[in-house]
Amino acid sequence: MPTVLGFEGSANKIGVGVVRDGKVLANPRRTYVTPPGTGFLPGDTARHHRAVILDLLQEAMTEAGLTSKDIDCIAYTKGPGMGAPLVSVAVVARTVAQLWNKPLLGVNHCIGHIEMGCLITGATNPTVLYVSGGNTQVIAYSEHRYRIFGETIDIAVGNCLDRFARVLKISNDPSPGYNIEQMAKRGKKLLELPYTVKGMDVSFSGILSFIEDAAQRMLATGECTPEDLCFSLQETVFAMLVEITERAMAHCGSQEALVVGGVGCNIRLQEMMETMCQERGARLFATDERFCIDNGAMIAQAGWEMFRAGHRTPLSDSGVTQRYRTDEVEVTWRD
Ligand code: MG
């Protein structure tokens, strides 16, 4: 019964989770929130993570009711993500592993999302839509890799939403995407925006530029409300994501769709995915913000699978990497 401690801090969330054989024993998390109109910068975010990580570790161990003796492995996010936050967390994971004399495991962040989504929802072989502030990918498992069928060719969908929120000075608390979602519910007018699907891939930077310009102009003339803009942006970018997920499902003959990542807890996106799945006779699996948004337990869960399959990360190789593609990891724990 391996028990794995997981550290996550690749962006503005810092989390420490404990997982034992499919049970999440603890999963505390903090979010670095910046003032409206601003984003989070790597150095400031790393400073935030360094300030709270030991408190979080204490909190996780207390909540799980465990001591260091009960932990079998220390998992941490190796990448992808922002450099300085990744380093700040890896240093702590490495130190704890040495102090407690435990094996270390560097985990691919995207695979953490997939394994956590499967654990929580019970999906067995889903086509995965992974959507967040830093990532946008459609993924399916085949022959010992999580293969990327489609992805953004520029910015992530969550980055498009976050940056649009800055233009409208929408609060970043609890997250810009959550506040856009609430405003979108009051939108009445669907504005035509660029729709950019290229085969299995999507692009969001042009849509962002377009709506940034349109926002200033149309709000000044009263042609639309901020709520209309939120509504139109969500409807457009989510339709693109549903389209590429459906294409991947058709290609794979998949009967399961799983949506993970911070944008994955958006209820409107889940509704649109649900409609698509129902029309195909497929099932949609989704989780709530505890497990969708970056957290420590997801790194512990992927670490648990890897640990049982015999993976270990030697200290000499326990660095981080900002670019670490989902399909770089050999998935030896699945048939
Ligand atoms: Mg993520």
H/E element string?
Answer: EEEEHEHEHEEEHHEEHHEHEHH
Q: Count the helices. How many?
A: 10
Mean pLDDT score, rounded?
97
Strand content: 15-25%
Total beta strands: 13
Largest sheet: 6 strands, mixed
How would you sum up the global shape?
globular
Unreliably modeled segments: none
How far is the first residue's CA from the last residue's CA?
21 Å
Helix content: 40-55%
Rg calculated over all Cα atoms: 20 Å
Give the class from helix and strand content and strand pairing.
alpha/beta
Present as ligands are:
magnesium ion
Features:
alpha/beta; 44% helix; globular; five-stranded mixed beta sheet; 335 residues; binds magnesium ion; 10 helices; six-stranded mixed beta sheet
Explain this structure.
The protein is an alpha/beta fold and 335 residues long. The longest helix has 27 residues. Helix 8 links the parallel strand 12 and strand 13. It is built from ten helices and 13 strands. Strands 1, 2, 3, 4, 5 and 6 form a six-stranded mixed beta sheet that branches. Strands 9-8-7-12-13 form a five-stranded mixed beta sheet, with helices on both faces. The mean pLDDT is 97. The protein binds magnesium ion (MG). The site of magnesium ion has 6 residues, from helix 3.
